Amino acid sequence: MVALTSADPASLETVQACLLLAIALHGQNELRESAQYLTTAIDGALAGGLHMTDSGDPNRTGAVMAESARRTWWELWITETFMATLHPRTTYRCGDTVLTPCLPCEDSLYSEGSALLNNPTLAQYSARVFLEPEPEFSSYAYRIDAVRAMSRFLNASAIHSVSPNSIQAVDNAVASWLHHLPEAKSSAVRNDGHVDELMLQAQLFVHFTSILMHLPRSGMPLTGQASCATEVTPVFLTSQRCALKARSSANDILALAVLPMEDHSPLSICCLVFACVTQLSAAAASDESKAEYQDSVIMVMGVIKSVGKTWELAMCALRRLRPLVARIFHPEDPFSAGAYDSTTVTDRSEYDSGVDLSMPMDLNDFNWSKFFDDLQGQSLDLAS
């Protein structure tokens, strides 16, 4: 474990290494160790002033190094915000800072060593909607804005009695983000046929935030209590409307899931799982055929399984999902009498799908919002 103290100031490289370790360990389901490295990275970043307005002078340190520093800060802020939605006891430290660093440039410029000397600010980005035509910003900038909506939801939910207006404001921010995307950024696939990783994550994050807002207020089964909200209060959005928005966001995530996901950030796993839970919730609430939901769920489970070849977190999530999927779509044990020819199957374990159908589960007690807290068999208190 890398330890940083006031006597051992963190280099930019040390902060970057700790951040990468935090993300990788999260993907390997080493959640406590991941949280420790993320805390270490944030300690070093705050001590080094990375959260200040472009603390490095690009004319002195070089535009590429200045770009590297601002990217490191924004990546820390994005990662901590995302982790705080999964583990509500996380101390949300970056969220208390004023977001003053300039916005990163396009990845292609950075990779070529052609980073800009005068990057736009977040205020300039926010003012784009008042200009004609609207200027286009980097994919990184749109990704930051997507996480801003998530951060606003976290801050609104931290209040004991959530204001209906604050939830509606975040809902409006999510819709605005989608409507104001320029045509060149509206798809996660670039014109050259390659996936724009940053726009893929940005769209996943936006739809993930929408699910966080609407699924607990939808009245559908499996909704439980939102872990990132101390109290889910009634809002003027009707439960039917919330259910529709949650399902729509889940469908949008599933549409992105058809892209190759194995080599992408492990943060995508949580978005896929929440989309799957939303589909399961809709299926459990449906009095009609569940076939359309079953096809979607089987597809996203397959994607999670493929991602699991790289990230252990995905396999752990899949093991938790399977009993729930079986309970909703196949309440009867498929190995019960008449379901197979017992004269040809002598060892049931050879045909074990990994689904523990004997596991007792009250669907109304399933707490989806603490899904990732419990993957290691115990609640994860990251504030301790």
TrEMBL record:
Keywords: Nucleus
Keyword Nucleus: yes
GO BP terms: DNA-templated transcription
UniProt-listed InterPro entries: XnlR_reg_dom (IPR007219)
Residue ranges occupied by any Xylanolytic transcriptional activator regulatory domain in the UniProt entry: 9-112
Alphabetized GO MF terms: DNA binding; zinc ion binding
Keyword Chaperone: no
Protein name (record): Xylanolytic transcriptional activator regulatory domain-containing protein
Provenance organism: Meristemomyces frigidus
Upper lineage: Eukaryota, Fungi, Dikarya, Ascomycota, Pezizomycotina
